[in-house]
């Protein structure tokens, strides 16, 4: 009888928490026992799910012996002093469509005279017809949204913040790699890249439903491949020495001002989906292989 009573109390507690958008779910296999997920309802049918990532340290970058590494991946030890909540998946078409319906927001590709860079069957090409609604290949609501600029992504984050009362933004590059690695130091967070990532050789020139590949050990999906994901930082070489809570808040002088993207994409080779692989582009770029995920920072 006491066991039944405990179960009833647990169910009641979960129901009450879900009313406030703070549904705590028991973590699945492979996720650290201390971690939980947070579900934020956006409307009656659409929500955003997050995984809580504890504070900690890791080696960012890659060793000189790592196959496929870039010259901008000089390793350094990074300490992150605050936990954060990172989107379980990239923001999807359905989630972005709700944002647009509620706010009337137009992306930079829609406002501009030339559109965005969509897939023309051979390569990314700029046309007025290419926007997040029409990237050049068919998409459903559970595909990652693409053809969004850095500012478009930040506008979505601000909308989620207003709805939830939480501090929502893009992850820093250090947060992104720390969460991607999930305690690993290998080139990929799993043994076989095809089990983790959509990339040029297996994606058939298109996106796919999120969660189609295996998650990492902390329960995050599509951190390797699928879409390049915008980060908060301006792109710059890693400075020498260990760092704490790094973020490049100002574009480096003397270089083209570009924002960081991480993860690789359906358009790029598998080596670009490594945990350490870095990419960058103008914050106004609107490509059919660029997307993003949201971070909630905790004080």
Model description:
- The structure is a single chain.
- Strands 1-2-5-14-8 form a five-stranded antiparallel sheet. A four-stranded mixed sheet has the order 12-11-9-13, covered by helices on one side. Strands 3-4-10 form a three-stranded mixed sheet, covered by helices on one side.
- It is built from six helices and 14 strands.
- The chain is α+β, with helices and mostly antiparallel strands.
- The chain has helices at residues 2-19, 93-103, 108-111, 150-164, 173-181, 193-196, and strands spanning 37-41, 47-53, 56-60, 76-80, 84-87, 116-119, 124-127, 168-169, 228-234, 243-244, 259-262, 278-281, 290-291, 295-297.
């Amino acid at each position: 009888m006491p066991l039944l009573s405990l179960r009833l109390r647990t169910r009641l507690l979960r129901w009450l928490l879900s009313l406030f958008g703070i549904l705590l779910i028991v973590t699945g296999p492979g996720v650290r026992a201390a971690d939980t997920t947070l579900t934020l309802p956006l409307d009656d049918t659409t929500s955003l799910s997050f995984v809580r990532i504890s504070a900690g340290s890791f080696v960012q970058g890659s060793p000189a012996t790592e196959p496929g590494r870039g010259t901008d991946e000089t390793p350094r030890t990074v300490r992150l002093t605050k936990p954060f909540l990172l989107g379980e998946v990239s923001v999807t078409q359905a989630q972005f469509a709700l944002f647009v319906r509620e706010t009337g927001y137009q992306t930079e590709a829609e406002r501009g005279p030339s559109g965005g860079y969509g897939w023309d069957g051979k390569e990314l090409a700029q046309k007025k017809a290419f926007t997040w609604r029409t990237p050049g290949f068919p998409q459903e609501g559970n595909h990652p949204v693409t053809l969004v600029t850095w500012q478009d992504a930040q506008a979505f984050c601000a909308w989620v913040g207003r709805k939830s009362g939480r501090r929502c933004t893009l992850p820093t590059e250090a947060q992104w790699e720390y969460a991607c690695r999930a305690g690993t130091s290998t080139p990929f967070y799993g043994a076989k890249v095809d089990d983790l990532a959509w990339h040029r050789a297996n994606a058939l020139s298109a996106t796919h439903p999120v969660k189609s590949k295996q998650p990492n050990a902390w329960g995050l999906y599509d951190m390797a491949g699928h879409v390049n994901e915008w980060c908060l930082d301006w792109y710059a070489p890693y400075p020498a020495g260990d760092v704490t809570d790094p973020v490049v808040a100002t574009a480096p002088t003397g270089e083209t001002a570009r924002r960081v993207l991480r993860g690789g994409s359906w358009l790029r080779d598998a080596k670009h989906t490594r945990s350490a692989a870095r990419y960058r582009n103008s914050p106004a770029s609107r490509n059919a292989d660029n997307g993003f995920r949201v971070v909630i920072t905790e004080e």
